[in-house]
Amino acid sequence: MAERSAHVDRRSPIRRGGGTLYRRLQSLRFLVGRDRAAVLGFLRASTASPLPLAARIRLVSRFIRITNHVRAYHSQAEMVAVAEAILRRAGRSQLTIVECGSGKGASTAKLSLVAKLAGGRLVVFDSFRGMPANEERHEDLGGRPMVFRRGAFYGRLREVQRTVARFGAPDVVEYRKGWLADTLPQFDQAVDVAVLDVDLLASTRTCLTHLVPRLRAGGVIFTQDGHLRAVAALLADASFWRDEVGVAPPAIPGVGHRKFLTIRFDEPAAARDPHPSSD
Ligand SMILES: C[S@@+](CC[C@H](N)C(=O)[O-])C[C@H]1O[C@@H](n2cnc3c(N)ncnc32)[C@H](O)[C@@H]1O
Predict the structure, then answer these.
(1) How far is the CA of 127 from the centre of ligand 1 (A)?
(2) Cα 177 to Cα 157: distance, rounded to the nearest angstrom
(3) How many domains does the chain have?
(4) Cα of 35 to ligand 1 centre, how many Å?
(5) Residuewise pLDDT in 10s, the chain (279 residues)
(6) Which domain holds residue 125?
(7) 12 Cα to the center of ligand 1, angstroms
(8) Residue 212, domain member (yes or no)
(9) Contact of 220 with 85, CB cutoff 8 Å
């Protein structure tokens, strides 16, 4: 059974760690292949949004540097899509970005750079002890079995903070350490953009039930876990949205087909009526 976790092949003579030539070549391969269209789209969007081309190029090169040095569990395509959403909200008062699931801190460092450029702050939720104990058994959209063992993706808080200090913008980041079921219910601030990368169904459920009611009108939630059948099924389940989250089920383009999903909430929280009357 596959485990989505750091791959270490102790027999391989090739060094694959942070900063190695192997890592740089891999990063370049993804940039000119898988992520090319999204990154070019991000650079071209400079005319329509407040960040000029030169600053976008600088941001993308800092993203690449982070990927070269820190084990990352996302693609640059995913990160530039989130960056664009944050930049479009630049200058809003109390602009708040939430990240659930920071792993080793690569995504956290990138999001911190974008939060700073947009004049906002980033609040990061993670156990900083890796995945919780769980009995979940997953399949990806292609039917491949996956498990997420306790402790997988472990990045200590100090390690993540060091990564953000070295590569990101530490002055705009706040950390909420602990299990999501304990930390999220205590969070009572309005949110503009949330990024979920938590893998487990239980964790996704906790994030959505606590964050959706906190979203400002025009807010958006990204999930990087749409490749898991159980997560896709949850997102497509109208009764989950109505009964557990308390909102009308949102349209989620690509659910059941794509890993990276965007969930938009255009209405203010109070107007997200799960049971609209028919008059
Ligand atoms: C795949 S990693 C995140 C990777 C990171 N976003 C990146 O792109 O590099 C998943 C993270 O979710 C966290 N996580 C999952 N469920 C959690 C829970 N219930 N409470 C706290 N943290 C949780 C794990 O600790 C882990 O750091």
Answers:
(1) 7
(2) 8
(3) 1
(4) 23
(5) 444 543 444 556 667 777 777 777 777 877 777 878 888 888 888 666 678 899 999 999 999 999 999 999 999 999 999 999 999 999 999 999 999 999 999 999 999 999 999 999 999 999 999 999 999 999 999 999 999 999 999 999 999 999 999 999 999 999 999 999 999 999 999 999 999 999 999 999 999 999 999 999 999 999 999 999 999 999 999 999 999 999 999 999 999 999 999 999 987 676 777 776 655
(6) 75-271
(7) 28
(8) yes
(9) yes
